[in-house]
Amino acid sequence: MGVYTLPDLPYDYAALEPHLSGEILEFHHDKHHAAYVAGANAALERLAEARDKGDFGSLVGLEKTLAFNVSGHVLHTLYWQNMSPDGGDRPDGDLAAAIEECFGSFEGFHGQLTAATTLVQGSGWGVLSYEPMSGRLIVEQVYDHHGNVAQGSTPLLAFDAWEHAYYLQYRNVRPDFVKAMWNVVNWQDVAARYAAAVGGR
Ligand code: MN
């Protein structure tokens, strides 16, 4: 077993229907997420080999591969936990107050994260993150899994905008998929992550 392991889904494949099909979740978790876990472990092994041989000729590519796969593993692990069959609606408490303070209103935040996810060029994510230098929430539009990110920010809520996240069900209509995502957001999970980030955990 490598350093990284594939976590079980916290619900059945079909638990998020009709918003996300069981077929999508099965392929997305068992194939795509699993590939990032395997890729992260393989990159670590190849870096260990390079150190043993004192041969860093492939280092640049390996570092990029490591960042891509570890970040893919991190964001997918977050993504599964960010969703729930009992999700949807909107947050309350400290998280709701922070969203209103940082985005003006829940509607303002909703619009920005929807746009960030819908307007990804190529593959990427729309992410709500806690930015510790300001102590504020920001929306990030992540390229692939690891680009266009503010250093040190902690992802709290991630919407996967890769085609593999929706194409089997929504075909080319990414806006309908993003609309459906809001129906399964597990705000309790997001609020717990926010509290932990604010507390420095
Ligand atoms: Mn994905």
What does this protein structure show overall?
This protein is mainly α and 201 residues long. The protein folds into 2 domains: 21-81, Fe,Mn superoxide dismutase (SOD) domain (Helix Hairpins, Orthogonal Bundle), CATH 1.10.287.990; 93-198, 3-Layer(bab) Sandwich (minor pseudopilin epsh fold). It is 52% helix and 11% strand. It has 7 helices and 3 strands, in the order ααααβββααα. The protein has helices at 22-53, 59-82, 93-103, 106-118, 167-170, 174-181, 187-198, and strands spanning 124-131, 136-143, 154-160. A 3-stranded antiparallel sheet has the order 2-1-3. The longest helix has 32 residues, at 22-53. The radius of gyration is 17 Å and the shape is globular. The relative contact order is 0.15. The model has no long low-confidence stretch (mean pLDDT 97). Manganese (II) ion is lined by residues 28, 32, 76, 160, 162, 164-165. The site of manganese (II) ion has 7 residues, from helix 1.
Ordered list of secondary-structure elements with their pairings:
Blueprint: H1 22-53, H2 59-82, H3 93-103, H4 106-118, E1 124-131, E2 136-143, E3 154-160, H5 167-170, H6 174-181, H7 187-198
Helix pairs in contact: 1-2, 3-4
The structure holds manganese (II) ion.
Ends distance = 27 Å
Portion in beta strands: 5-15%
Strand order of the largest sheet: 2-1-3
CATH superfamily of the largest domain: Iron/manganese superoxide dismutase, C-terminal domain
Percentage of residues in helical conformation: 40-55%
Mean model confidence by pLDDT? 97
The distinct bound ligands, ions and cofactors come out as: manganese (II) ion
